[in-house]
């Protein structure tokens, strides 16, 4: 492994970019989809979130972004204002069927400087052009976004993230449906964010890609199966456990018997609240 701790993080208690999950439970219609997850995302590091379909990965990102309220536990964003968190949803969730030039789409990333309806400065336009160049889209500024291919559009969204200049960057399946060249180019942008000391958390499905590019991994299957260095997390045993997660939506799932620390507790032998007599 390389020297990825060569930059010093000397913020003693609450380093910027640090985000911690404390016994976090997230539910839809009272069904938990993320269940008692605790841990910290390594600051200034790249962490992959992997797990089977329906494991709660996208839901967890939404909660980290503050778009969803925990039913239990907390997301602790020490030292991170909401504006310092950037979030790229799954491409399928993004509507780009409106008239907007590529440059204007990138400039939306600069809203905290220019305001939604503020004047766009010349320097902002220059930064937008530089960002487009960095993602391999130089010269595309005047094109309408609805005419771009899926891969080109994703490059534009990465340019927008570059302008946003966030400390914590959350990416939901950023490479789905992209070809190898586009994926490699965008992985290089992510590596650049790491060199700049930013924290990146990405939901991914390609284990080889995760092993090569993401030093940290959270393996999620509703519960946390493993979280730490990728080589220790992506073991056959852990993956088998994750893939054993029930896929069906269990309407009769047992009531959760855990205390507030997240530690499993033994369900009471005769729980009168669950049985009618
Ligand atoms: N808006 C919603 N309303 C109700 N249930 C939802 C909603 N969004 C997700 N779910 C359910 O929550 C569970 C977790 O979904 P989530 O999208 O977080 O999983 P995921 O790990 O991102 O899956 P995938 O790999 O398929 O994208 C699934 O069972 C899903 O059906």
Automatic annotation (TrEMBL):
Give the region (Disordered) as residue ranges: 250-277
Among CDD domains, the record links this protein to: ABC_Metallic_Cations (cd03235)
Which domain of life does the UniProt lineage start with? Bacteria
The record's keywords, sorted A to Z, are: ATP-binding, Cell membrane, Membrane, Nucleotide-binding, Transport
Q: Does the keyword Lyase apply?
A: no
**InterPro entries reported for this sequence:** AAA+_ATPase, ABC_transporter-like_ATP-bd, ABC_transporter-like_CS, AztA-like, Metal_Ion_Import_ABC, P-loop_NTPase
> Residue limits of the ABC transporter domain?
19-247
Entry's Gene Ontology molecular function annotations: ATP binding
UniProt keyword annotation of Cell membrane present: yes
Q: Which family does it belong to?
A: Belongs to the ABC transporter superfamily.
Report the protein name in the record: Zinc ABC transporter ATP-binding protein AztA
Native organism is Chitinimonas viridis
- The coding gene here is aztA
């Amino acid at each position: 492994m390389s020297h990825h701790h060569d930059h010093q993080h000397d913020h003693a208690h609450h380093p910027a970019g640090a985000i911690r999950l404390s016994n976090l439970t997230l539910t839809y219609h009272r069904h938990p989809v993320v269940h008692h997850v605790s841990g910290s995302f390594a600051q200034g590091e790249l962490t992959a979130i992997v797990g089977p379909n329906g494991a709660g990965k996208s839901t967890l990102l939404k909660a980290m972004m503050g778009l969803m309220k925990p039913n239990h536990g907390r997301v602790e964003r020490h030292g991170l204002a909401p504006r310092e968190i950037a979030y790229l949803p799954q491409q399928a969730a993004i509507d780009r069927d409106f008239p907007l030039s590529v440059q204007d789409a990138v400039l939306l990333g600069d809203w905290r400087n220019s305001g939604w309806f503020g004047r766009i400065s010349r320097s902002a336009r220059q930064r937008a052009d530089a960002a487009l160049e960095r993602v391999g889209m130089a010269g595309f500024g005047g094109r309408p976004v609805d005419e771009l291919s899926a891969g080109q559009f994703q490059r534009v969204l990465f340019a927008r993230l570059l302008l946003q200049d966030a400390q914590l960057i959350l990416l939901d399946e950023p490479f789905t449906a992209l070809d190898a060249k586009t994926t490699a180019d965008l992985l290089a942008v992510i590596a650049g964010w790491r060199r700049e000391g930013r924290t990146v958390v990405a939901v991914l499905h390609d284990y080889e890609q995760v092993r090569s590019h993401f030093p940290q991994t959270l393996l999620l299957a509703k519960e946390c199966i493993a979280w730490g260095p990728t080589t220790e997390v992506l073991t056959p045993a852990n993956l088998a456990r994750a893939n054993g997660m029930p896929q069906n939506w269990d309407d009769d799932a047992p009531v959760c018997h855990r205390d507030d620390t997240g530690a499993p507790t033994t369900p009471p032998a005769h729980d009168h609240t669950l049985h009618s007599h």
